[in-house]
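name: query_chain
kind: protein
chains: 1
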Amino acid sequence: MARYTGAVCRLCRRNGEKLFLKGSRCFTPKCAVDKRPKAPGQAGGARRRRRFSDRALQLREKQKARYTYGTLERQFKKTFRLAERQTGITGENLLVLLERRLDNVVYRLGFADSRPQARQLVRHGHIMVNGRRTNIPSSLVKEGDTITWREGSKKTEYFKRISQEIEAKTVLNWLSLDRATLTGQVISLPTPDQVDARFDGKAVIEYYSR
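structure:
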């Protein structure tokens, strides 16, 4: 299944809640969910009132997780199988693995306004992990990893803008950020209670357990 390339606001409206796919725009009155809360399509209102089967609800939760973190179906399923093999609760393991993705960490550090933008920064080689350039958005960070900008990228207008805007951004407590140098560090692996999950992990488990 290819990556979704349509209007991301339709995904939020289809799920009936904000998935924060457009970054700062989602916090403004321009947000499509606030302006048009009905599901997309001519019969949006009726579709939202329709009763869904358990299977459909499980699929919706799985898709919400996929869309939130911007993964392909094959990538997501691979991450789920990895979560299954780990000790502990599979749904919580899945959330932690998704949070450890490099593109998500770049977003969480405030280097990008959205995960798609963070993924683009990584792919274009602007981000370094432990002093080495890494262009794989799905790579998993580890405790103690340091995330910095490539020297050449610090000369761009985008970096200058981020340097000015970074003061207003909040960083989760499993990460640390030197706002003067825009250097981030993974001080511990995330725990489920440190992350605002946008999906029901139990429903995802039931979806793949059929």
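note: Strands lie at 127-129, 132-133, 146-149, 175-178, 183-186.
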